[in-house]
Amino acid sequence: MDSLERSTIRSEQKSRKFLKSLIRKQPRDLLLVIGTGVSAAVAPGIPALCSWRSCIEAVIEAAEQLEVLHPGDVAEFRKKVIKDRDLLVVAHDLIRKMSPRTGDTKPNFFQDCLMEVFDNLEQHIQNPVVLQSILRLMERGTMVLTTNYDNLLEIFGHQQGKPMESLDLKDKDKVLQWARGHIKYGVLHIHGLYTDPCGMVLDPSGYKDVTQDPEVMEVLQNLYQTKSFLFLGCGETLRDQIFQALFLYTLKNKVDLEHYMLVLKENEDHFFKLQADMLLHGIKVVSYGDCFKQFPEYVQDLTAQICKHRSPGTSCVDSAKRKLGENGTDSPKRIKQSDNGIPTIE
Description:
Elements: H1 3-14, H2 20-23, E1 30-34, H3 36-42, H4 52-66, H5 71-83, H6 87-97, H7 110-117, H8 129-139, E2 143-146, H9 152-159, E3 165-168, H10 172-179, E4 186-189, H11 208-211, H12 214-226, E5 228-232, H13 241-248, E6 259-264, H14 268-279, E7 283-289, H15 294-307, H16 316-326, E8 335-337, E9 343-345
Helix pairs in contact: 1-15, 4-5, 4-6, 4-7, 8-9, 8-15, 10-12
GO molecular function: identical protein binding
Protein name: Family with sequence similarity 118 member A
Keywords: Acetylation, Phosphoprotein
């Protein structure tokens, strides 16, 4: 992107209006849901990060090169990627094909293919603007979960000196700590992480120990009812079976919730129909522009708007105390009850 194009986009962003209901949220009241769009903006040089379709195509190519998938199956899956609308089903079928016939997903060749696809991620970070914005919100108490297999956020956070921690749903104790706000720089990967051979799951049945655990499900679903989820770079997340199992299946009165989703507005009719449909799920759809290149700058400006509003009743002394806590000289697990009854960590 040349300087003139960047300047044009920045001027467009400065003139854009933001929803007051969103920018007046306190960072600690938000939970970011990170999708493939974030990875695509950060590391455009890796096609597999651009979309579910690109990821599946890259995995199929890796499987062919590693000779872990029969040539006939390779050809069949390539046809499915082109023809099938539901790419999550294709992904489910692909991981099962490279897993033991017992139905257990461990061990499997799918993870080897992902490791091939995502090799040397740290060398491909080209535009960290979105990651910088996410870290800025995390510093102020925003929680993060992702449907992505990659750990770009954690890699970048470590480079900035943050104690990042990758979590998956297999570790109950860690999930409970994260959900209760005790792991400030924790990133929950609900599909698992490509570097962990035991943590990757595409089918909710793989998480039956989680979905059948009342304690875990209560604390996770409480997040969806008490936090405002902000979907970044997400397209198919609401149709994702694991996300549905964790947050949507048992919830009633979704229309009473207030969540947000940033989307690309390529077609006005489609955009406004999506807005109307998502309101039924308690989600306000917001356009970041009609060009994907506008996404990083929009997120940066939105973050600045959110962070400039000081918490009600926050004094300079309170801010100093929180700073001490971040530096390890004060307890990082001190819990305060906010005015709306939501437990928050200072």
